[in-house]
Amino acid sequence: MAPIWLLVGLVFFFQNGFLSSGISTNISMKPSEVQIGGIFTFNSSIGKVAKVAIEAAIEDVNSDPSVLGGTELKLVTKDVNDSGFLGIIEALKFMESDTVAIIGPQTSVMAHVISHIANELQVPLLSFSATDPTLSSLQYPFFVRTTQSDLFQMAAVAQIVEYYEWREVIAIYVDDDQGRNGIAALADKLAERRCKISYKAPMKAEPTRDDIRDVLFKVLLTESRIFVLHTYAKSGLDVLDMAHYLGMMGSEYVWIATDWLSTILDTNSPLPPETMDQIQGLLTLRMYTPDSDPKRKFVSRWGNLTKGSFGLNSYGLYAYDTVWLLARAINTFFEKGGNISFSNDSRLNEIGGRSLHLDAMSIFNGGKLLLKSILGTNMTGLTGPVQFTSGRSLVHPAYEVINVIGTMRRVGYWSNYSGLSIERPERLYTRPPNNSVSNQKLYPVIWPGQITQKPRGWGFEKKQLRIGVPNRVSYREFISYEGGDSFKGYCIDVFFAALPLLPYQINFKLIPFGDGRNNPSCTDLVRLINTGEYDAAIGDIAIITNRTRMVDFTQPYIESGLVVVAPVRTLNSNAWAFLRPFTPMMWAVTAGFFLVVGAVVWILEHRINDDFRGSPKKQIVTILWFSFSTWFFAHRENTVSTLGRLVLILWLFVVLIINSSYTASLTSILTVQKLSSPVKGIESLRESDDPIGYQMGSFARNYLTEKLNIHSSRLVPLNSAEAYAKALKDGPRKGGVAAVVDERAYLELFLSTRCEFTIVGQEFTKSGWGFAFPRDSPLAVDMSTAILKLSENGELQRIHDKWLMRSACSSQDTKLEVDRLQLKSFWGLFLICGVACLLALIIYFMQIVCQFYRYYSDFSETSSGQSSRTGRIQKFLSFVNEKEEVIMSRSKRGSDRHIEEGASMNGVQRRHMDASSNENGSLQVI
Predict the structure, then answer these.
(1) CA pair distance 655, 663, nearest whole angstrom
(2) For 147-179, how does the pLDDT look when each residue is reduced to its tens digit (9 = 90+)?
(3) Who contacts 269 (Cβ-Cβ below 8 Å, separation ≥6)?
(4) What are the strands of the beta sheet with 24-28, ordered from one edge?
(5) Residue 253 has what pLDDT?
(6) Mean pLDDT over residues 597-624, rounded?
């Protein structure tokens, strides 16, 4: 007993990873043979294939002198018979025999333990079948995985689940390192695609039939029908046999087996007919190895190696390549000056190792160099390119997607490069990677039950769904609880009309929610779905943001946003009705523009148009008359100037629009009965301090306080339509409310028999009613489809008319008073007209100034002296007031007078010059 405990202590000692120096023993620089070990189970599906493949590879390596240059590999294999304890013992024995590397172990459970020994003694451990993704190079630096990690296999499973639009799966697995860690990787990959494992069903490593039955009974109680089976070969077939016995291989079930199933089918095919019948329709994966001449030759050679006793699986190919990988790495090791030498670990004696002969174990001094050579090897083997990434994974991980029909039928491939595809992965490597959902494709699958239609993945028949229904007090036309399991109303009829349209039947029980005295809160009901007390909820449940965070809703079956209802009174016509089309501001601005346009036209026409001249009194009358006569297009004054005509055209266009709008509005006022309400909509309610009513239990309260910042003291809860009517009639002065805020569906029913109230303003939220289900429930999708079908075939409208169509009151022929025409509706027209007037005045002023300066320069020389500034201004104003023809005539006469004066001066000068000339001539004669 003491030696066993000492051995266990040794294993824990190895976990520390310390290295010791000891006495070095050199074998040779390049020995004639190098010993490697092999640890696996000879009678397992993987082990028996691997043993033959490894022995064939050793023979091929040793027969090729170009690989190791004369050195041969000596293989020593140990059968551990699926025992972890024996695996540890055999690994320790290898450490006594100068072994430079170990091929194996076969299982991940053994790999976790033996890797500690390999780390301590620096002997590389190459496993072709330990797929546990947690066998990390950081924790186990001397462990080298020469096959694909389950991390990639679970990524393939997750993408298959997403491809078929399933959202939840059930994981059935062996409860050991490989099973637990593989399912943990699956959970992570599913979460990346917004899917999840809804239930985990662990099993013993060697379960009995009763153990399997107990696990499957628990699985049957769940709703998901998508099973991922991650186990070993023997227990996997036992699970499928029990599942078939329990009726879990029907048309509504989906089974996805990891590569253990394809390994069995490749190795032991054909299986017994009864076994094959039990696995028809399953999906499984197989590690993909591309076709090549060496692979085809080895496959044809396999029959001779095994005498046809069993087939070749993917693990056999990886085992074969592992030997070649190790052989090439040893050759590189020697080329880099590596020396096979071992050192004793002196610390083994300190823990009493002599009684177990542990001092015979030694550290491989060249272990690090050999490990580096292994990881740096780049070759092409039977499985394709053999090369390691920086994370020590093989390059280009890929799987075949197999549908078990008859034997095995490939429906596509999965690669880490481009996801699911019907093309071989090596062809995809030549193109840019494309993992988009639209690019994923598989061939059609034949599912369990020999069906080709994709299973929905859920089953509700065997579980009674607890469906909560609001127990309403008011508006019982929507939902009315009659006692027991009896409900009726609009929402109930919609639900029962949708049930026959589902692709399956559901077993359910309607449960009233609420005390029957007050309307219950639908938010509280939805919260109970999230906690699991209810499986669904139907009724008048508004689809709002905070509820969608808890559950999934169906397609809305009725639109119902928040609106405002207020009292109204009839607005009769009176003697001053003609003023009501425009607001006071609109009247003022319109009148102002009449005067402005009249003044602008007068300025532009005053100097050239006799219609705009005369005494001041006459000119003022002209301006007023011209301005307001344009309203009726009755002005008789003609415009002469270009600028005046431009201004007038634009103004007449504005007048046409205003006149038409006024006429239309006045006609409506005088001919259609109007209703008036002091409340114009939600904005006027926010600005006032009046109390506001809302339905008890409605989300309207939270919306008003949180979104519109209305103080809660202003909100008055009301519990019935009668309470609505009384509060609205009393009004704020008598303890009532100014208006009620509620969903349109309720208020339309309320108003159908109460004509003294009406909806004011616009609907200020957009929402609808739907049925609530747990997150990612397929019932939400299927029920939405059923509701759409009800809408398309008219059944939804028929149900609406049955419960909600009431006799319309006479006030439907009236209209609520609309807003009067305001300035904001016409400010663009006024702006255009104003800008035109301003530009015309600027141009006109520039023309006047230019004319004035020309006139002033012509007559400045005739003035008796310098004019003062005041004089110039007076002259300018006088100039502006004078008619343009007079100015032009005066300017012309002035110009003629200057010409005559110039000619007269020239004559005098000539006569003077002639007289001077005569005098000079007389003097010369004398």
Answers:
(1) 12
(2) 999 999 999 999 999 999 898 999 999 999 999
(3) 311, 407
(4) 24-28, 340-344, 362-364
(5) 93
(6) 74
Q: Are strands 283-287 and 398-403 parallel, antiparallel or unpaired?
A: antiparallel
Tokens 């020469």, located at residue: 146
User: Tokens in use for 716?
Assistant: 């008055």
d(CA 830, CA 859): 43
What average pLDDT does range 17-23 have in this prediction? Answer: 36
Give pLDDT, residue 20.
36
- How many whole angstroms separate alpha carbon 649 and alpha carbon 839? 15
Q: Which residues are bridge partners to 904 per DSSP?
A: none
CA 264 vs CA 49, 314, 361, 398, 824: distances in Å: 11, 11, 38, 19, 81
> Among 22-36, 184-198, 721-735, where is mean pLDDT lowest?
22-36
Reading phi first (left if > 0) and then psi (alpha if -120 to 50, else beta), residue 609 is in beta
Kindly list the distances between the CA atom of residue 798 and the CA atoms of 193, 561, 769, 782, 792, in Å, as whole numbers in the listed order: 41, 22, 17, 21, 12
Under a CB-based contact definition with an 8 Å cutoff, are residues 612 and 638 in contact? no
The Cα–Cα gap between 776 and 762 comes to 35
Say yes or no to pLDDT of 559 above 60.
yes
CA 461 to chain centre: 33
Angle at 16 between CA 12 and CA 17, to 5 degrees: 120
The answer to whether the peptide bond before residue 455 is cis (omega within 30 degrees of 0) is no
CA dihedral 55, 58, 60, 62 (to 10 degrees): -140
Residue 888 clears pLDDT 70, i.e. is over it: no
| 8 Å CB contact between 264 and 233 | yes
Here the tokens at position 500 are 């026959």
pLDDT at 901 over 60: no
Q: What value does the CA radius of gyration of the chain take, rounded to a whole number of Å?
A: 50
Amino acid at 859: F
Alpha helices in 866-883 (DSSP H): 869-881
Residue 546 tokens, joined: 């905070």
Tokens at 386, concatenated: 């053999």
Report the 3 state secondary structure along 72-125: EEEEEEEECCCCHHHHHHHHHHHCCCCCCEEECCCCHHHHHHHHHHHHHHCCCE
Rounded Cα distance, 22 and 32, in Å: 25
- Does residue 625 sit in helix, strand or coil? helix
Give, in order, the Cα–Cα distances in Å from 804 to each of 189, 560, 568, 746, 748: 49, 13, 23, 10, 9
Tell me if 53 sits within 8 A of 383, measured CB to CB: no
SS3 239: helix
Share of the chain above pLDDT 90, in %: 47
Contact of 105 with 80, CB cutoff 8 Å? yes
Question: CA-CA distance, 40 to 130, in Å (whole number)?
Answer: 11
Check: CB of residue 453 under 8 Å from CB of residue 521.
Answer: no
CA quadruple 619, 620, 623, 624: dihedral sign: negative
User: What pLDDT is stored for residue 832 in this prediction?
Assistant: 87
Tokens matching residue 629:
């006569």
CA angle 555, 558, 564 (to 5 degrees): 130
Note the pLDDT of residue 32.
87
CA 322 centroid distance within chain? 44
Query: What pLDDT was estimated at residue 116?
Result: 87
Buried b vs exposed e over 375-413: b needs ≥16 C-beta within 10 Å? bebeeebbbbebebeeebbbebbbbbbbbbbeebeebbb
Q: What is the pLDDT of residues 34-67, one digit of tens each?
A: 999 999 888 889 999 999 999 999 999 999 988 9
Q: Say if residue 875 is exposed, middle or buried (CB neighbours under 10 Å; 0-12, 13-18, 19+).
A: middle
Q: Are 218 and 192 in contact (CB under 8 A)?
A: no
Dihedrals phi, psi of 71, to nearest 5 degrees: -80, 140
